[in-house]
Structures are given as structure tokens and as C-alpha cells.
């Protein structure tokens, strides 16, 4: 049975750039025998912690939680892609993680943050969260520092490939590390 990576797009803002970064990253991390699927929290649309039981009890009553649990169980490792918001990570990403518990345990994870200074503070905070979920943190974790010159008047990349070229080697190393861990 082949192994699969889930790349979770952790921002749901309408003006987000994370889908562009996610597609760029997916193309560089994917290996011939190790596919990377994009999991967009904007379309998964989980309610904020509405299931009455603690996630650790695995007593899900909501269909949305049951679907999310099944989806997460289908992956062997994860890449969390998220921007830094006021030195933190986006609430929808934290909610997606907190909605479940057992499903995350033991699955390797890489943190890919971005912001004006690479999203360093958000990545620090997220390290605590994944540690609490008992997810082993990979050694390759990208921090993408954004530059205003990369964006058009709507705040979108003018050329994502050109902008992210300095991070291409790290992204390929992440793919190689995932392959070593899983295959």
C-alpha cells in the first residue's frame, strides 16, 4: 500500500496566497512513489469545536468530524502550510488539529510558515501544538520570507516560481526526508 502526504493549507482568508505556495510546494515535494495531496481548510470547512466529547475520547457525533477523521487517517505524514498572523498561526488550522487527537499521533510533520520574516513566531507556537499531538517534527521546515515586490495590486504573486526559487532546494530536501521516513 503506497504512502501519502497531506499538505494542509492552513489559511482560509479570501485574499490568501497559500494556495499558490501550496501548489508550488506540492510540485517540489512529491516523489514518484509518494504523492502529496492538498487539503484546503477553506473547502473542508470544519465548525469550531462543536463536537461535545473530547477529541481524545474518539466519540465523534458530527458528520464533519467523522469525515475529517477518515480523511486524516488516510495520510502517513503531513505538511502544515500557514502564514503568521500577529505572531501566531491561523485559528482554522488550530481548530482542524484540535478537532481530532489520535489521528495525528506518530505521523511525521513539517511546518512551512510564511510572512514578512518567515513566520518564525507562528512556527515556534505550532511546534508546541504538534508536540502535544505527539507528531514527530521533521528536520526540514521552511520559513518563507515574503517581499512586497513579489505581489500585484491584489496581493497575489506575480510569479510564484520566481519568488520562491530561493526555497526550492529546501522543498526538495523536505520531499527526500519524507521519502526516507516513510518508504
Automatic annotation (TrEMBL):
Coiled coil: none annotated. InterPro entries: Flavoprotein-like_sf (IPR029039), FMN_Rdtase-like_dom (IPR005025), NAD(P)H-dep_reductase (IPR050712). GO terms for cellular component: cytosol. It comes from the Bacteria. Residues 4-140 form the NADPH-dependent FMN reductase-like domain. GO terms for molecular function: FMN binding; oxidoreductase activity. PANTHER family: CHROMATE REDUCTASE, NAD(P)H-DEPENDENT FMN REDUCTASE LOT6. This is NAD(P)H-dependent oxidoreductase. It comes from Levilactobacillus suantsaiihabitans. The lineage of its organism: Bacteria, Bacillati, Bacillota, Bacilli, Lactobacillales.
Amino acid at each position: 500500500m503506497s504512502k501519502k502526504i497531506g499538505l494542509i493549507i492552513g489559511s482560509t482568508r479570501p485574499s490568501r496566497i497559500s494556495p499558490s505556495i501550496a501548489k508550488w510546494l506540492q510540485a517540489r515535494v512529491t516523489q514518484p512513489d509518494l504523492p502529496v495531496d492538498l487539503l484546503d481548510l477553506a473547502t473542508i470547512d470544519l465548525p469550531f469545536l462543536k463536537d461535545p466529547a473530547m477529541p481524545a475520547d474518539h466519540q465523534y457525533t458530527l458528520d464533519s468530524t467523522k469525515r475529517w477523521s477518515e480523511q486524516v487517517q488516510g495520510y502517513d505524514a503531513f505538511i502544515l502550510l500557514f502564514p503568521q498572523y500577529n505572531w501566531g498561526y491561523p485559528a482554522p488550522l488550530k481548530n482542524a488539529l484540535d478537532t481530532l487527537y489520535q489521528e495525528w499521533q506518530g505521523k511525521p510533520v513539517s511546518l512551512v510558515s510564511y510572512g514578512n520574516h518567515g513566520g518564525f513566531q507562528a512556527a515556534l507556537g505550532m511546534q508546541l501544538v504538534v508536540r502535544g499531538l505527539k507528531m514527530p517534527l521533521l528536520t526540514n521546515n521552511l520559513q518563507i520570507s515574503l517581499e512586497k515586490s513579489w505581489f500585484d495590486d491584489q496581493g497575489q504573486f506575480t510569479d510564484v516560481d520566481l519568488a520562491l526559487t530561493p526555497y526550492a532546494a529546501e522543498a526538495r530536501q523536505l520531499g527526500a526526508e519524507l521519502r526516507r521516513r516513510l518508504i
